[in-house]
């Protein structure tokens, strides 16, 4: 008896979910479109070099240099928020960001590093010195990528093509002919 009640409740809940999904208004969902935009990324690999030079504070110390070369994976994506998408009739307007968002991650290739030798009295390069040098290297890499018009244009074209294709495909499944317009962010 309890088993039958559980099965009946499950059937009712499933019916409610299926009926509510059928009653949607057959239009472009800005949330779905935002998820599509998250997929429209370009990945590239960057080699960065972090350098720290530490001068000596007394005559018995040596000038020290720390150098590290490391690989990073970079994802370029144009993040489009739901409020940047409007649907009026058969026209979908997307306000397009002025530059991509970059996400860095350490590549699995490892890194190569070099420390210059100490003298009689140590002149240590600390972990915070190394971290600051790495942060500077990442900042320089980010600036170089954003100044690289070719890769930014490729990411923009790919994102626009994927958005347009998605909206047109959605329109064909619900027998609507959507027109996609892109406007630059102010």
TrEMBL record:
Origin, by domain of life? Bacteria
Q: Which InterPro entries match?
A: DUF4230
Q: Which residues form the signal peptide?
A: 1-23
Q: Which UniProt keywords apply?
A: Signal
Q: What Pfam families does this protein's entry cite?
A: DUF4230
This protein is called: DUF4230 domain-containing protein
- Source species of the chain: Eubacterium oxidoreducens
């Amino acid at each position: 008896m309890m088993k039958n009640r559980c099965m009946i409740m499950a059937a009712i809940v499933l019916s409610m979910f299926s009926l509510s999904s059928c009653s949607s208004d057959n239009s472009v969902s800005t949330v779905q479109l935002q998820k599509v935009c998250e997929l429209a990324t370009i990945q590239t690999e960057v080699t960065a070099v972090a350098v720290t030079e530490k001068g000596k504070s007394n005559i018995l110390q040596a000038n020290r240099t720390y150098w590290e070369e490391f690989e990073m994976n970079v994802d370029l994506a144009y993040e489009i928020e739901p409020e940047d998408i409007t649907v009026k009739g058969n026209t979908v307007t997307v306000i397009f960001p002025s530059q991509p968002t970059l996400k860095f991650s350490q590549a699995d290739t490892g890194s190569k590093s070099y420390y210059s030798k100490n003298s009689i009295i140590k002149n240590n390069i600390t972990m915070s010195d190394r971290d600051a040098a790495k942060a500077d290297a990442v900042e320089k890499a980010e600036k170089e990528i954003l100044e690289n018009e070719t890769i930014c244009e490729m990411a923009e074209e790919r994102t626009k093509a994927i958005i347009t294709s998605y909206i047109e495909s959605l329109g064909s499944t619900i027998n609507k002919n959507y027109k996609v317009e892109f406007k630059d962010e102010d």
